[in-house]
Amino acid sequence: MSIKELKILAIDDNQDNLTTLRAVIADAIPGTKVITALDGNTGIILALSENPDVILLDIVMPVLDGLSVCRLLKQDTRISQIPVIMLTALKTDRATRIKALEAGAEAFLAKPLDEVELIAQVKTMAKIKESADLQRMEKAELASLASERTLEIEKELKERRKAEEELQEANQKLRQTQVATLELLEELRKEISAREKTEADLIIAKNKAEESDRLKSAFLANMSHEIRTPMNGIIGFSELLKEPDLSLEERDRYIVVINDNCQQLLHIISDIIDISKIEAGQVETIPVDFRLNTLMETLDENYSQKAAAKSLKFILRKGLGNEECNIHADQSKLRQVLENLLTNALKFTHAGGIDFGYNLKDTRLEFYVKDTGIGISDEHRQAIFDRFWQVESGLARQYGGTGLGLSISNAFVKNMGGEITFESVPGSGSRFSFSLPFSRSVSGIAPKPAMKKETISFKGKTILIVEDEPDNFDLLNIILRRHSLQILHAWDGNEALQIFSEHEEIDLVLLDFKLPDIPGQEIAGKMLKIRPYLPVIATTAYAMSGDREKALQAGCISYLSKPIHSEDLLSDLKKYLN
Ligand code: ADP
């Protein structure tokens, strides 16, 4: 800024003074604009509107003196920075000068004014103002810059915060997505493993079904062979029996062969019935009191002969003395299991021998059958208990059998509270064993009286036989006639009831439960209603589970399954007729 462009405000109540000032300044600093005011208030208004570079202010003025004007100027921040030079005529008044400075004036000039000093002061003050303005401007610029920057920073911060929030939100979403993805993966994994399991199960089921199908076909083929073989024996030797010039020994030998073959057939049939019962879940344990050693000795007797025929040693070991071997268990199932194991041992052993027996171990009886036979390889370990399964298959079979024995035995042992296990070395032999809970019999057991061979006579007794099969009736008739019985025969239920009502002398009824017209149960019921103490013995060829119970429920005194053994029949008649 050049001095020429200065703007000076002069405030003085004396117009002459103002004129002088204007002239002096215009002369000393050409181009300077001098604004004037004749009183303080006008001066303040002009200061505000014109923003002069310097204010020359007379102290002594009416209404508002210079000191008051100066104070007002310095109080207003819009104009407080304009340098004020106080003018006074009281040159020597020191106190006034001090007051002027206290009121905020920057300089002081005494009247009459020294022009040089005035101009110098004016210039100095103008410079001060200029630099003050500059400073203020810089400050203002800085402040605006700072506030601009602050705003920018705030904006940036805001944006950054927003960005952070967005990032956090995105992170959160990402995490949620990750969790959802993991859950999805887990579900997928589960689904895949479930599907794999189902597939594996299906493959197992398919293999089982195929294996079962294969086994059934093999079984049917075997069965045909297993049935035809004894049938062949029975038919062939029965034909031979017709020969007129047979010796007594020959006849007895043929009868033994026929009987053996019949037993074999019967065995197959009862195996089939047993396996059906097992599959239908109808196996029930019927425990009775019996002497274990008697059972073991009977088996020993039966099998030692067969072993001797193959030149095999046969040893029985009993784990309890005769006085302590009375037990409570399912005798017929235990016998069947041991017979199956012994039959296999005999069948698969060609040299050496068989050792069987039992031991008492804590609270269980452990049974075993050990042989020195062909043994079983590890690959067949599981399969041998499967129904119909045999190591041998196809036409080249040398051992025979139906593949049912172990499966039945295993089910029976499980039913009695045990499990069959075995150890085997191929080529050296096998040891099958199982244990059952040892339960002593509560009642004493009288040894079974041996059937005397002498002829039992039922002279004077009358028996009604209800039987629709002519052969079956013939057999019963022949057996019983020998024992001097009076025999009445009915072919069906109605005839039976008719005869029964006409013959009060009937002492016992032998009643076939399967008749063409009326069920055996009903007939028994009707007869017993009339004669409650009449002994009725039920007979049936079905040997299915429940028949025995049905007969006993109907009030029958006993039950005989066909084929009826004459010994069992006579024993019952002896019991109930006398
Ligand atoms: P089966 O004897 O009528 O064939 P099983 O169910 O009793 O039926 O036996 C199944 C198969 O287990 C037999 O065919 C045989 O291959 C094998 N097996 C059973 N017992 C023995 C044994 N003591 N020694 C060798 N193999 C045996």
SSE map:
Elements: E1 7-11, H1 15-28, E2 33-37, H2 40-50, E3 54-58, H3 66-75, E4 84-88, H4 94-102, E5 107-110, H5 115-241, H6 248-279, E6 288-291, H7 292-309, E7 313-317, E8 326-329, H8 331-347, E9 353-361, E10 364-371, H9 405-415, E11 421-425, E12 429-437, E13 462-466, H10 470-481, E14 486-490, H11 493-502, E15 506-512, H12 520-530, E16 536-540, H13 547-553, E17 558-561, H14 566-577
Parallel strand pairs: 1-2, 1-3, 3-4, 4-5, 7-9, 13-14, 13-15, 15-16, 16-17
Antiparallel strand pairs: 6-8, 9-10, 10-12, 11-12
Helix pairs in contact: 2-3, 5-6, 6-9, 7-8, 8-9, 11-12
Question: What keywords describe this structure?
Answer:
578 residues, alpha/beta, five-stranded mixed beta sheet, 14 helices, rod-shaped, binds adenosine-5'-diphosphate
Could you please describe the fold and organization of this structure?
With 578 residues, the protein is an alpha/beta fold. The chain contains 14 helices and 17 strands. The strands form four sheets. Strands 2-1-3-4-5 form a five-stranded parallel beta sheet, sandwiched between helices. The protein has a five-stranded mixed beta sheet with strand order 7-9-10-12-11, with helices on one face. Strands 14-13-15-16-17 form a five-stranded parallel beta sheet, with helices on both faces. Strand 11 and strand 12 (429-437) form a beta hairpin. The protein is rod-shaped.
